[in-house]
Known about the structure:
With about 160 residues, the protein is mainly beta.
Amino acid sequence: MDLDHIRQILDLVRDHELSEFEIEHDGLRLRIRKDAHGAQATALPAPVSAVIIPPVAAGVALPGAARASAPPAPAPADAPADDVELAVVKSPIVGTFYRCPEPGAPSFVEVGSTVKKGQVLCIIEAMKLMNEIDSEHDGEIVNVYVENGQPVQYGERLFAIRTR
């Protein structure tokens, strides 16, 4: 990450009026936090294996920044026929995917579960807020693409629903 990238990130923070932003890239962690007196920036060494990019704004790309994403889950063994219409539920935000309301509780849905429009499918935690993701379709869950506790990106596939 060079000085031009840092300036571009600062411009994005300013343009989108973010109060806090943190990024880890190539062993450097950059945290920008605005308080009542202005912005403060700190750059600290970070583990090379960690890359965290919090939500900025939909459609905003950070130049030169790597994006972390969970590997796609394998297709189910009994893949649905091509003539069946599948609705794919995608993440509306960047955050952490949770299949159940609290640790130890049963999952909201499993593969094979029948769901109705408006039913909660999962929770995505973003910036300490728990966001319930509801089904927009009636049907049956045929695939869950993300593991519990994994980070998800905006637009990433979460579920496949065989619509009715």
